[in-house]
Amino acid sequence: MVDFYDELTYETNPFPETHPGNLAALGRLFGIQTTSPQQCRVLELGSATGGNLIPMAWHLPQSEFVGVELSAAQVDIGQRIVSTLELPNIRLEVGDILELDAARIGQFDYIIAHGVYSWVPPLVREKILQLTRDCLTPHGLAYISYNLLPGWRMRGSLRDLLLHATREVTGAAAKYNTAIAALERLQQALQGAAADSQHYVQKEITYLLAAHPSYLLHEYLAGENNAFLFSEFLADAGRHELQYVCETDLHTLFDTTLSQPAQTALADIEDPLQHEQWMDFVQMRAFRKSVLCRADLPLERAIDIDVFTAYFYSANLRLKGKENLNNTKPVIFLTADNNELSVTHPLSKAALLYLQDVHPYTPDFEELYAKAATKVRQAGGKAFAEARSELVSELFSLYSYRAVYAHLTPCLHRPEWPEHPQATALARLQAAQGWECVASIRHQVMSLDSFSSYLLQELDGSRTVPELVSYLIAEVVAGNVPIPGGRQAQTSGKGLEKEISANVKHLLNVFARHGLVQH
After folding, report:
1. Of the candidates 449, 453, 413, which has an alpha carbon nearest to the alpha carbon of residue 430?
2. What is the pLDDT of residues 32-41, one digit of tens each?
């Protein structure tokens, strides 16, 4: 069995949970004096084309980044991007993890291994853990993601199917096409299926049919794909003098995510790590994103909420429906990927509305509380405006679900654009490279369609908004770029001008909210 890393470039997007700012904030909650993300060293093992690491280097110019990737073809792509952007603080190297050592690459405040640990042989896994211990600074943190038992067993059944279906096929394109045909056949066969396991498989098939080809090939048809019990991972980490801190999905640490009967059944398990293991069994988790530190580092297992209120906050949410700031009726906020988030306390609602208005700007807690309290009072909810502790509690809950983000350092960007809007060189380059998404200032994914990609490339600061609109109208008429929804056939003259103008202004708002427009 072969892997396809040279034949098909792996789609590497920014992963917000791996960002040193996110890891630093998590570590502080557990008593670790993590290094500021503004001045740190970061190592990524399996950095592919640099899609995760390059945006970090762009936005954190005083920090240093090193990416190591086995595929020379992928490193070459990343190096060309680094060269074009003239980034002096990042180095992408071709390298074998087995041949790395601390004497050569040095010490790092943050180490990232996303999508690597489960997909390599045992010897390489051991080396990853050894490198992590040897290369971590005393207060450093490592992020390692991996497939998890028992939940992976259901997804593993699809891997069994795809390995069988493609057993006599060679080449990435042929393997992919054969795998898609097999998935479509299984999808048809499962129509009307009643078992929960079959519903799970149907959902995964739907995801795979829409996913980038690289995900299917590298996840389901890779030569190695291993899953572990959480307790097994902890034991392996412990042998290398590493200890577990938390998950980047912080809410998974708390049994409030379980049903009441499940909470009762696990209530007598005092060891928090054993408790997490049992939660995996109950919830059938299939994947973990674990944060580790050195075993000799003192760790506070009880999260310090006072530390949390010293952060700066952001949230990229949209209100659905009415505000309801004078009562505790739930309101719905939509996340960037349209998941619904129910919020009840008026102060929390008002705080999220403020974060929505100013994103990507990051207020501190006192500013956020003051703005929210004023808004609640003005709406007639005076009785709720003084409930500071309730805001702290609900804000932390939202943070634990990654609906709200917490930062050690502020972002002062406002959702505005100048008379001559100019996108960052990073965003313009990503669009010009044909990427289907770009990295936001918060290291999140912003998807692009053909029109938004074209507009982003044209934001070089040389045109006003009316001039951009005129230019894009000419391009649409010439057939060089479509407008969203493919409505050119029904739109002409004043209608076309109105359509293009509305789209440009909407997208400029979106770009500004994602920190893609220079001020």
Report:
1. 453
2. 999 999 999 9
Six-digit token string for 154: 């259901």
Q: CA 511 to CA 249: how far, in whole Å?
A: 27
* Six-digit token string for 440: 């936001």
Encoded tokens for 178: 């054969």
E-assigned strands of 26-127? 41-45, 64-69, 90-94, 108-113
Tokens of 98: 């087995």
Separation CA 19–CA 53 (nearest Å): 9
CB atoms within 10 A of CB 137: 18
What whole-number percentage of the chain has pLDDT above 90? Answer: 75
Cα–Cα distance measured from residue 284 to residue 269, given in angstroms and rounded to the nearest whole number: 18
Task: State both tokens at 233.
Answer: 């991972």
CA 302/CA 279 separation, integer angstroms:
18
The residue-averaged pLDDT of 74-84 equals 94
Helix (H/G/I), strand (E/B), else coil: 409? coil
Q: Is the pLDDT of residue 337 over 70?
A: yes
Mean pLDDT of 242-259: 92
- pLDDT value for 492: 59
CA distance 476 to 504: 13
DSSP state for residue 36 in the 8-state scheme:
P
* Average pLDDT of the residues in 185-199: 87
Enter the tokens of residue 269.
């398990």
